[in-house]
Amino acid sequence: MSKDLISRYYSAFNAGDAAGMLACVTDDVEHRVNEGGIRHGREKFAEFCSHMGVSYREELRDIVVFASEDGSRGAAEFVVHGTYLQTDPGLPQANGQTYILPAGAFFDLKGGKIARITTFYNLNDWIAQVS
User: Fold this and answer.
1) How many Å separate Cα 89 from the centre of its chain?
2) Complete edge-to-edge strand list for the sheet that includes strand 113-121
3) CB 13 within 8 A of CB 61
4) pLDDT in tens, 57-103
5) 74, 78, 112, 123: which could form a disulfide with 63 (CB 3.0–4.6 Å)?
6) How far apart are CA 63 and CA 37, in angstroms?
7) Where are the domains of the chain?
């Protein structure tokens, strides 16, 4: 179940289906992004998804999903293939640059939903690729 949930979440991500991603998370989801703050709740997560859809076009490839035996935790490793569409404040100017970036995420799962997402990637590598 937990591996299926994480796989469903990433399928929705790759389809650009924010509603599908939101359907996979708890109302009080905790979203932790590499080099960033913590977002609490589905509304803040929805805002993040909306922003990402405007600033970036990304496809995750080579996804490998892991899960604990009790189904309470999971992880995924993948490669992000992206295009930087719109400048994010404090980051390099966007002009359609492409990037390929190894990344991973950790999950807490409860009640058949994702309660925490923690994403890691090398920000300096990304900046070097788009600069």
Assistant:
1) 19
2) 38-40, 25-33, 113-121, 98-110, 73-84, 56-67
3) no
4) 999 999 999 999 999 999 999 999 999 999 999 999 999 999 999 99
5) 78
6) 25
7) 2-77+103-121
Instruction: Please tell me the pTM assigned to this model.
Output: 0.93
Q: What angle do CA 11, 64, 81 make, to 5 degrees?
A: 60
The architecture that CATH gives domain 2-77+103-121 is Roll (3.10)
* Joined tokens for residue 58: 């990304």
State the Cα–Cα distance between residues 103 and 66, nearest whole angstrom. Answer: 14
Q: Regarding predicted confidence, which is higher, 6 or 54?
A: 6
Q: What residue ranges in the chain does DSSP mark as E strands?
A: 25-33, 38-40, 56-67, 73-84, 98-110, 113-121
